[in-house]
């Protein structure tokens, strides 16, 4: 069975065209990958391995435009995994002409704790997914509690006079975070939807109370 073991001794440094021609003197050709005997329960098809005595250890697949400056490709995509040192992660990055010092821009990262970052190289350990940018989706499902407790007999509805005093003092509704808190910390979609529904249900009860009072006055 055929397997491949690649050992790279320098990160992101690739041979130039002249070196490739002198080493192989032939055009690249497609190779067939065939699985070997299972390793750790896996049918191992391809292994990338770096052996460094110092520095980072990040086996990488690079797609580049074939042009190099000081041993570094001018334009490339890197798909690599840092397997020792810190942080241990899998990442996808890109570099194009004009980016200083050969640094690439990282677009995607998975840390070894399973946390994912998109558009950021430092996923927040508090979240399984963090996105530095906008998200568009057809549907998002959030598992959360709901606010129908407002309609329970035991629920105490705040008198409107007290609501007014709270608003005059705090400049926001009871149970709803203030603007400064939201601007600093954002909102939790599930909890905020629950709070907004609570306010809608409370408004419904206020309207029912008001209608009853109006009917009483009209019937006098």
Describe the protein.
This protein folds into 2 domains: 5-131, no CATH class; 148-219. The protein is α+β, with helices and mostly antiparallel strands and 220 residues long. The protein is built from 4 helices and 10 strands. The chain starts with a strand and ends with a helix. It is elongated, with a radius of gyration of 30 Å. The strands form 3 sheets. Strands 3-6-7-8-9-10 form a 6-stranded mixed β-sheet, with no helix packed on it. A two-stranded parallel ribbon has the order 1-2.
The mean pLDDT is: 80
Q: What's the SSE pattern?
A: EHEEEEEEEEEHHH
The end-to-end span amounts to 96 Å
Shape annotation = elongated
Give unreliable regions as ranges: 1-28
The tally of structural domains comes to 2
Q: Secondary-structure map with pairings?
A:
Blueprint: E1 5-8, H1 17-24, E2 47-50, E3 60-64, E4 68-69, E5 72-73, E6 76-82, E7 89-95, E8 105-111, E9 116-118, E10 129-131, H2 160-170, H3 179-185, H4 189-219
Parallel strand pairs: 1-2, 9-10
Antiparallel strand pairs: 3-6, 4-5, 6-7, 7-8, 8-9
């Amino acid at each position: 069975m055929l397997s491949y073991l690649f050992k790279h001794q320098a990160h992101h440094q690739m041979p130039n065209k002249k070196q490739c021609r002198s080493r192989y003197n032939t055009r690249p050709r497609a190779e067939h990958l065939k699985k070997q005997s299972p390793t750790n329960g896996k049918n191992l098809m391809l292994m990338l391995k770096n052996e460094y005595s110092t520095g980072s250890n990040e086996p990488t697949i690079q797609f580049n435009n074939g042009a190099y400056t000081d041993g570094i490709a001018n334009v490339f995509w890197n798909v690599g995994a840092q397997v020792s040192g810190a942080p241990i992660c899998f990442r996808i990055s890109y570099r194009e002409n004009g980016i200083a010092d050969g640094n690439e821009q990282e677009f995607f990262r998975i840390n070894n704790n399973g946390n994912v970052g998109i558009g950021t190289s430092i996923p927040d350990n508090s979240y399984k997914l963090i996105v530095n940018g906008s998200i568009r989706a057809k549907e998002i499902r959030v598992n959360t509690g709901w606010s129908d407790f407002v309609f329970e007999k035991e629920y105490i509805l705040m008198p409107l006079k007290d609501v007014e005093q709270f608003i005059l003092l705090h400049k926001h509704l009871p149970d709803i975070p203030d603007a400064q808190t939201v601007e600093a910390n954002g909102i939790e979609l599930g909890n905020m939807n629950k709070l907004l529904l609570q306010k809608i249900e409370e408004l419904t009860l206020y309207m029912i109370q008001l209608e009853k009072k109006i009917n009483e006055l009209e019937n006098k």
